[in-house]
Amino acid sequence: GDCVVTFSRLAIYQTKELIEAKTGMRCAVIYGGLPPESRVEQAKLFNDPESGYDVLVASDAVGMGINLTINRVVFMALEKFDGSDVRPVSVSLTRQIGGRAGRFGSGAKHGYVTAMEARDMKMLKANMTQMPPSLMAAGINPTLEVMETFSHQFPKMKFSQLWPMLCDMAEVDDGYFICSFSEKDAIAETIEDIPLSIGERYQLLYAPVSVRDDYSKMAFRKYAKAIAFKSICKLASVVHVPDAVPASRDEIRTLEQRHRMITLYLWLSYHYPESFSNDDESFEIKTRCETLIQAALINLGKLSNTKTTQRKAAAENAQKIRQLLGINS
Fold first, then answer.
1. Which terminus of the chain, N or C, has fewer Cβ atoms within 10 Å?
2. Which terms are listed as keywords in the entry (predicted)?
3. Least confident of 203-207, 209-213, 312-316
4. What is the spatial distance between Cα 138 and Cα 311, in angstroms, rounded to a whole number?
């Protein structure tokens, strides 16, 4: 019934492996990089008292829409990397995660929340008893109609420059602000040279995609070209899913990456059915990818560790986990 919360994929893998090695208990895992279907399967293992899975090791993704029979939440730390810096976990996030204890069929009258380190307890108690700060303003985005009208005024300007310029020039009522373009900037830049309409570019800004790696950029550009040239794009021609279960953590990460491109393809199939197909073949590829990820998670402790930095980080993390387990050596 314990859920051990940590905020990196590496720490999740290490914590799962050490708990299983030292106690004989089995751990399910949930983190943001997993496909939603895999998160649901891991949740089922943890919730089922007959499955043999006793502990959940998770990131803050545990607080997002999954029913879990958690009795106690244990925070490994109360700080996380936010993409640019390591910052304290907010009041709202602490309460969202900690509030999962003692809910959904746990059978417990009360849930318990604690921290690995004594020094974190003061902050944890404060966060769990405070109300999150009120929202002072709501973010809004320009609509497609606004973007098209604005683009006519600057016909030679790149689309990736158009949105930020509009945001700089626009005025909004009190209580509102225009959302930052930073998260969409990489998407716009990736497809800037492809002959898409303003409407198509605008649509793709909201696609479920991150183009932080070369493979995702390559796949996204292939999809965008299919839209631009009204050509047919088959999923199997872009995404290759192997037949074998991943033999390393890096291979799990690669499969998760492939799954995101499969999800993007199926999302596009609803918006551009003339180019993308949600046929049986596409769903078979999706199912096979999810099955391999699930099999790899079950065998996680047996997978090879390909990075020396992981061994160093594991040694640094081990003492904390031993304290949790009551192990002296």
1. C
2. ATP-binding, Helicase, Hydrolase, Nucleotide-binding
3. 312-316
4. 44
